[in-house]
Specification:
heterodimer, A: 379 residues, alpha/beta, Aspartate Aminotransferase, domain 1, Aspartate Aminotransferase, domain 2, 2 domains, 12 helices, 12 strands, 40% helix, B: 401 residues, VC0802-like, Rossmann fold, nine-stranded mixed β-sheet, elongated
């Protein structure tokens, strides 16, 4: 099997599953219970939180456990908008957001908020001057994806943070779901107020995630009830999931440190091979993330390619997994200006550290064969 | 990030005459322990000042640690430059640029500890101030109430330039004043008493009276967590957990209700004295405040205190509850203290307690108790362990994380 769909989800590490299973079995107490079992569960969760905070170089109190990227983005965006609406009702985001961001803003528009969607250039990047022009007295939030999940485009988070530093009334939220452990950023140096992370994108369990909430930032809670997660998210904590995610984060960050260039090598190898094939165009920008390669086979339906690759146990995807079942050209590729034909025929290969050069070569060979066969049939 | 140093100014140490270097060494040691999580920092000591070389470490996180260390009067994030006018001007400009936003006025305060430096302080103020004015926009000089004070300290080998001062915790370095034991209940007062005792330079060991199964594991954990908070101010702290169930049962059985609290406190004090002697501590610290509850009336203190000859330090004795709560919130113990677990002071609380217990009556009632045997047994079965600052991964959890 060759698994090149790591932007959709990653395979959990064996050690992560062991943790999940052991915690579920042994430390199953409710951390809010008064007895010993509850206390143990609470301590374990506390250590997991501490480990994540240390890895992210932030304070333990700034880590809010969520159920993943979608919840993190929703809590950050709606939580800021609803809490601070008296200060202003203008929000800024980009036109290349993940659906969980995009739809949250669409909802807020129905509630009377005004949203500016920033344009992007061919590489999928926003322009700082356009952002600067969009900022107003009643702007309360700027929210953007760090690494785009379809193209791998990287937004200039540091520059945005430095610009927003001079606008103390504007909160800065970053959707770091694709960037985590692949394109590192320092939350502090980038002046980030809120940052979303999802556990299953770095070999943790699904249904886990973290929203970083800088100390001093107030949010409107979307889930009310108990006082868990600093009153921001009621509900009994997912202890096995969160602890397993803490382990996955440690292991994945370790791999990044040990093997920074590995993903880049895979990416360059694939991009160079694809560029040699007549009829295939690479969509990802050269300066994009090291684990995502998006390319198009104009004139060919990508679903067919994906099925044919699947028969050979090679797994890639079309666009974002969250919207791949919608039969429309990719929204992201459209706004990037790549044109309808490329947006309709895009395929995404995304790597993890476990992938190898041999797998890339095998993938390219398979693709060439399938491509030739399809060209004959479809034209 | 232009700042590369932190300049630390001492609190009362300057008054210590011949013992001063000993105090300074201890402070340096305490700083070193607190900054252990930052492997790249280096701490240098010169007469009258200490310098933390940041070497790329996060100055905000370090400032947070330093603000908790006793013996520091204040500190500043600083730029270190060579002793030339050009470098000083350039450094001052870089330092002020970083904190410019929203500020309109500034002044330069130059000081020469190194009198060999050819430009005198007045002239230096003028030269550096002028340079900043030339190279910034919208800034003006205000020597009386400036938004930013740019401090320039010309010392022997280098010049330190800083803007803005962080307040330290004051007091004396923990460990310079010997050792005391702290009776730590888990309430709001006793952790604050421990904190204030440490502020005067003493090291503490905590004593907690635990009455399982009437007081549960969480009550004990709460005390461990409180002790952990105190370690941020005083480094490693030893916690002695005294098995107290049997004594409480005995008291409950033979002592009249209105004196049980008095006798219980006398037993606690005796046990604390015994532990203090064993650990070479020279005083007992409590969170008592005059008139707060029945055990803390003057009559009560008089009767309870009779059983020990050791100094009993009561840092909160004159404070109002609200003053104590303010400190508890500031030092981070309040939220833990108000967790609602029963402790041994509340569990057997009789319906009526004498607010004016007398020594004579206490003697008479205590005749029914085998005091020495009870103390021996409790002290013999102490559960003592060290609590270290920061979260130490529990061994049980290590392989899970």
């Amino acid at each position: 099997m060759i698994y090149f769909d790591n932007s959709a989800t990653t395979k959990p590490y064996k050690e992560v599953l062991e943790t999940y299973s052991k915690v579920s079995e042994v430390y199953f107490g409710n951390p809010s219970s008064l007895h010993t079992l509850g206390k143990e569960a609470e301590m374990l969760l506390d250590q997991g939180r501490d480990q994540i905070a240390k890895l992210l170089k932030v304070n333990k109190k700034e880590i809010i456990f969520t159920s993943g990227g979608t919840e993190g983005n929703n809590l950050a965006i709606k939580g800021t908008a609803l809490e601070h609406k008296n200060r202003g009702k203008h929000l800024i985001t980009t036109s290349v957001e993940h659906a969980s961001n995009y739809e949250a803003f669409a909802q807020l528009e129905k509630f009377g908020f005004e949203v500016t969607f920033l344009n992007v250039n061919e590489s999928g990047e926003i322009s700082i001057s356009e952002l600067k022009d969009a900022l107003r007295d009643d702007t309360i939030l700027v929210s953007m994806i760090h690494v785009n999940n379809e193209l791998g485009s990287i937004q200039p988070i540091k520059e945005v943070g430095e610009l927003l530093k001079d606008y103390p009334k504007v909160y800065f939220h970053v959707d770091h779901v694709q960037g985590m452990t692949k394109v590192p950023i320092s939350f502090k140096d980038c002046y980030i107020d809120l940052c979303t992370i999802s556990g299953h994108k770095f070999h943790g369990p699904k249904g886990t995630g973290v929203l970083y909430v800088r100390q001093g930032v107030k949010l409107f809670s979307l889930l009310t009830g108990g006082v868990q997660e600093n009153n921001l998210r009621a509900g009994t904590e997912n202890i096995p999931g969160n602890v397993a995610m803490a382990k996955a984060l440690r292991l994945s960050m370790g791999k990044f440190v040990d093997n920074k260039n590995h993903l880049n090598e895979l990416r360059n190898r694939l991009v160079n091979s694809l560029r040699e094939i007549d009829g295939i165009v690479v969509n990802s920008p050269d300066n994009g993330a090291p684990h995502i390669v998006n390319f198009s086979l104009p004139g060919i339906k990508p679903e067919v390619v994906i099925q044919a690759l699947g028969e050979r146990k090679i797994y890639v995807s079309t666009k974002s997994a969250c919207s791949s079942k919608l039969n429309e050209p990719s929204r992201i590729l459209m706004v990037t200006g790549l044109g309808q034909e490329r947006a309709e025929s895009a395929i995404r290969a995304s790597f993890a550290f476990e992938n190898t050069k041999e797998e890339v070569d095998e993938f390219v060979n398979a693709l060439k064969i399938i491509f030739l066969q399809l060209k004959e049939v479809m034209r | 990030m232009n700042y590369n140093h932190i300049v630390i100014r001492y609190a009362e140490l300057a008054l210590k005459g011949k013992n001063r270097s000993q105090f300074e060494r201890r402070l340096q040691e305490n700083i070193k322990i607190a900054l252990k999580p930052f492997p790249n920092v280096k701490i240098e000591r010169t007469y009258g000042r200490m310098f933390v070389q940041l070497n790329g470490e996060d100055h905000e996180l370090i400032a947070e640690k330093l603000s908790k260390i006793f013996g520091i009067h204040s500190f500043s994030i600083a730029v270190k430059v060579e002793n030339t006018l050009e470098k000083i001007q350039d450094g001052a400009l870089r330092a002020i640029t970083e904190i410019l936003e929203g500020n309109k006025t500034f002044k330069v305060s130059a000081k020469r500890a190194n009198k060999g430096f050819p430009i005198d302080s007045q002239k230096l103020n003028y030269e550096v101030g002028g340079y900043i004015l030339e190279n910034t926009e919208g800034l003006t000089v205000d020597v009386h109430h400036p938004d930013i004070e740019v401090k320039v300290e010309v010392r022997e080998v280098a010049t330190y330039i800083s803007c803005g001062v962080y307040k330290g915790s004051g007091g004396l370095p923990v460990g310079t004043g010997g050792k005391v034991v702290l009776m730590l209940s888990g309430g709001i007062d006793s952790p604050v008493a421990g904190y204030l005792a440490m502020k005067r330079g003493v090291k503490i060991e905590a004593i907690h009276f635990h009455s399982p199964p009437y007081t549960n594991e969480r009550a004990k954990q709460k005390v461990i967590d409180l002790t952990k908070v105190l370690t941020e101010y005083g480094g490693k702290i030893k916690l002695h957990v005294v098995p107290f169930t049997k004594i409480q049962m005995e008291i409950h059985k033979v002592i009249p209700g209105n004196y049980t609290m008095t006798i219980m406190r006398r037993m606690m004090l005796r046990i604390s004295e015994r532990i203090a002697e064993q650990q070479k501590a020279f005083a007992i610290t409590t969170g008592e405040s005059l008139g707060q509850v029945a055990s803390q009336t003057l009559h009560s203190m008089h009767t309870i205190n009779e059983v020990t000859n050791m100094p009993v330090l009561r840092p909160l004795v004159t404070m109002d509850k609200l003053e104590v709560i303010d400190i508890a919130q500031k030092i981070g113990t309040f939220d833990l203290s108000i967790l609602p677990y029963e402790d041994c002071c509340t569990i057997f609380l009789p319906p009526e307690t004498s607010t004016k217990p007398l020594r004579d009556k206490a003697h008479k009632y205590e005749e029914k108790l085998d005091i020495e045997a009870l103390i021996e047994e409790a002290v013999g079965n102490l559960d003592s362990f060290d609590i270290l600052p920061g979260i130490e991964a529990s061994k049980d959890f290590e392989d899970l994380l």
